[in-house]
Design a protein that fits this description.
Order of helices and strands: EHHEEEEEHEHEHHHHEEH
Distance between the termini: 24 Å
Structural class: alpha/beta
Number of helices: 9
Number of strands: 10
Largest sheet: 7 strands, mixed
Number of domains: 1
Strand content: 15-25%
Radius of gyration: 17 Å
CATH superfamily: LigB-like
């Protein structure tokens, strides 16, 4: 059962050593990412699943390695045999200070996976353990301004605003309805991962909180958390009314 989820961006510049002199630009976002990851582990999970986009859908287990060498930083995380894509490498970096707190696995979902495939994968992930926490890595549109990697598309900001509202409200229906062709046109990196989240949380009522939504480099970045009644520790779990105060 899914007990908590965190949605985070995965630009290499999130790592201070990659950002260099501009590292301070994302200090606030890093703090919110740390808060989102902490909330995952506060939910007392049996299994943390790190999910992000890649060329293919795969389960990498926990024996993994992620490197930032292609982005100018001689830094490696883990010592496993499986090489992680960028999205999961950033996820592995975010887990660095929590790495021994729960079992973990790393899963990639193909950029071109259909919504149905994503939703079904999410359902399977939610059944992986009694208490599953999902760390979802995905960026918004890279077409927000004339200086964006994909130049300017007038629909980009509206699209990202729609995603931000869905994350804030815990709206699984809105995420499940995202169209792959629109996401592809707007260079949206997070669409398949967000739809896996929607599948994992299907028929549930998450308490959502949008911690960060910005586009410092012309790409939409989101930091959000979803918590459920079952997100609280096995002992001393508060009632729903108390849980809702977390979203205020």
């Amino acid at each position: 059962m899914l007990v908590a989820a965190g949605v985070l961006p995965h630009p290499p510049v999130l790592v201070p050593g990659v950002a260099g002199q501009r590292a301070a630009d994302l200090d606030g976002m890093r703090a919110n990412c740390d808060l989102a990851v902490t909330r995952l582990f506060d939910s007392d999970p049996d299994l943390v699943v790190v999910l992000g986009g890649d060329d293919r859908t795969a389960c990498h287990g926990s024996d993994v390695t992620g490197t930032l060498a292609p982005y100018g930083l001689d830094k490696t995380f883990g010592d496993g045999s499986a090489r992680l894509p960028l999205s999961l490498t950033i996820g592995r970096w975010l887990l660095e200070s929590h790495i021994d707190r729960a079992a973990r696995e790393f899963r990639s979902v193909a950029w071109n996976a259909t919504p149905t495939e994503c939703l079904r994968l999410g359902e399977r992930i939610a059944d992986r353990a009694a208490r599953v926490a999902l760390l979802v890595l995905g960026d918004g549109s890279a077409c927000r301004t004339e200086r964006s990697p994909g130049f300017l598309d007038p629909d980009a900001v509206t699209y990202d605003d729609h995603v931000a509202e869905a994350l804030r409200c815990g709206d699984t229906t809105a995420l499940a309805a995202l169209r792959p062709k629109t996401a592809e046109r707007l260079l949206v990196g997070g669409r398949p991962a967000w739809q896996v989240l929607a599948g994992a949380a299907s028929e549930r009522s998450p308490i959502g909180e949008l911690l960060d939504y910005s586009a410092p480099y012309g790409v939409g970045y989101f930091v959000a958390t979803w918590l459920f009644d079952s997100a609280f520790p096995r002992s001393g779990r508060p009632e729903r009314e108390q849980a809702e105060t977390l979203a205020e």
